[in-house]
Records
---
Amino acid sequence: MKAFRLVGSGNTALVDVEQPSPGPGQVAIQIGSASFCHSDLELLHLPDNVPGIPLPVTLGHEMAGWIGAVGDGVRGWEVGRPVAVYIIQGCGWCRACEAGLDNVCEQGVIHTPGVHYDGGVAEWMVVDARRIVPLDGVDVRTAAPLTDAGLTAYHAVEWIRARLEPGVTVLVLGVGGLGHLALQIVAAISAARIVAVDVDPAKVDLAKRLGAEAAFVSGADTAEAIRDVNGGRPVDVVLDFAGVQATVDLGTDVIARNGMMVITGMGGGQVPLIHGFGGPARRVPQETPVVTSFAGNRADLYRVLDLARRGLIHVETTAFALTDAPKAFAALAAGEVLGRAVINP
Ligand SMILES: [Zn+2]
Ligand SMILES: [Zn+2]
């Protein structure tokens, strides 16, 4: 079968490999969709000898497909069932993992397909049965991005869910793979007003199409523009899907006292959380929690799939054949893909 692999630092290749078969406790999945994520680009630029990342490795940590074979000891799953794959597998026995919160595994284990073992940009893959969830009614050919971009966006929204009363304003910073889904999730589960910001005019348009009441291309006067459309008031919630210094600063400038900031983008921006009368003027206001949100838990995946199943959210995708995976990856690197680049083998 064909597989798109990371073969060494900075190098990928579409290669022929042996079709994998499931061991005990595993299933083989015939891939219906797999998608690229920005973290695949970070993986590309890692050095060759990172412990736990064996090269070559088939890329792709977002995938969905049909069960094609079931290993010894696996019960409750039958061949032909459409499934998605939960992207993180923690240690499996700590208190967090036992509660299904693998994203905060106490051992820090984030065993992920397409990183630590062969992933989904291939015709087939093998995973532990413990990590699959039923798709049942979600389109297999477009479902892949829901398992990471969707999961992570849903988890970010979960932090603020109790705050989403009518009259509340949510600011979404970054309308890429995650932000465009978070925006739809907020619109689907609440009557909150949504304002969005991106550096790309096409993504600002996308935000408006998906339910943002106002959206702006970021610039010097963006904070003022946000307050203007919000009746002169600061916003109640910030969801930051970039997490770079510019978005963290913008969020800090427009968040209300007793608001909440959720930072999902791992852009390395530093949050000025200072409590006291002296020091810099730019700071998170009092009584405003700041959360760094990472991936999501199993319950989040079930919930985001349910929103998709009911047609309340959809992923903007650009589809590629598996043989065009190198082209799709290059387009991602060049920032030329609107929505998610999805591979359909
Ligand atoms: Zn990812
Ligand atoms: Zn654990």
---
Amino acid sequence: MQPVDVRPVGETEMLILWPDGHRSLYAQRYLRFQCHCAQCIEEWTGRQLISLDQVDSDVHALNISPVGNYAVKFQWSDGHSTGIYSYELLRGICPCKECAAKGPAS
Ligand SMILES: [Zn+2]
Ligand SMILES: [Zn+2]
């Protein structure tokens, strides 16, 4: 599912509007932490190589660019920009109550 809109809300949050009317509001720091690039996630085990403590508390996206029609790329203020966030991943980590109740998307 391709979002209708991906936009920062101030410097700390990121809003994604989905075509089914769902709204996902993420802390930008949380999104930075959820980066799935090879530096942040061990490819074979899916183990996270960074901890939330290591992510700057004021990290925010300087630039947002779509990748094809399946993902988006954030250029983070800490210089990290190798992560590609698929829309599937983003929807799966939506922190709202409704999604949290359903559990992670499989
Ligand atoms: Zn990364
Ligand atoms: Zn949600």
